Amino acid sequence: NPATFIHAYTCLPLAYATRQAAGAILQDVADSGVLFAILMCKHKVISLVGAQKASLHPDDMLLLSNFVMSSESFRTAESFSPICLPRYNPMAFLYAYVNFCDVDTYLILLTTRSDAFYHLKDCRICIELVLSKSNVLSEVQRSMIDGGMHVEDLPLDPLPRSGSSPHLGQQRLPTDSPERLPTDSPKRPREPFIGIGGPAGLWHFIYRSIFLEQYVSSEFSPPLSSPRQQKRLYRAYQRLYASMHDKGIGPHKTQFRRDENYVLLCWVTQDFELYAAFDPLADKAVAIKTCNRVCQWVKDVENEIFLQGASPFS
């Protein structure tokens, strides 16, 4: 799970109106004394609301989802359990009310009160009643079937937008590769790679919004089909993230790596971080252009893939 090293959480892709409806349902119980109300589908957030001035760190979000998903007992009945969220308060317990709405979707209500079980139970009944009258759960199931962003669907030529959006390629990318990259010479770059994966040999990407502390990653597809290949890529991302944020030698803004497994490209701005993996024969200049297209694509669909309006949970 990339959340373990990029310190952000991910949301289930949903229409903006659907996510807003889910948030409005949760807000009603948050106003009744619940510290946090979180609706999740597996490890992905559908919506969350918190009491005024309360904040929840993404690392605690990961802990919560692992806590629920790692035990089958939560699926069989409503549960009320103490839990320590170290980023929130390492010296105290919160109390988590957990109930599954369906096979993958569950509700977490957090409180500081050890005697709040019946109050939270009533809150859950109210939430389920409203959810049953809305289309939120059916839209959640449809999103699970459709999946998230696929590199094969990357728009070929997004229209240029007005405004001062950052543009990768305005500065030279540092590289750890011993080879001379094709774009270091005045020769014309090769044509975009056509084959397995997306345009220009794009295999996968992770985009992290720094302000929202949320990330989106593309779905895995060939040639990254097996869990072993996926784990190897995540480890490569983790090493890349560590080198980008190493205070001893950085931090860096851009980095380009090429080895026998991938071309890895990372770009860090004040607004976002992008990590992308390409075919090891991908052209550097074309890979840079493709990363710009990925960023524009994410910008175009941000209302569907991010929980908008959320304050930083730090």
TrEMBL record:
Residues 33-124 form the FUZ/MON1/HPS1 second Longin domain. Residues 160-193 are annotated as: Disordered. Residues 201-301 form the FUZ/MON1/HPS1 third Longin domain. It comes from the Eukaryota. One of its GO terms (biological process) is protein targeting to vacuole. Plays an important role in membrane trafficking through the secretory apparatus. This is Vacuolar fusion protein MON1 homolog. It comes from Gossypium armourianum.
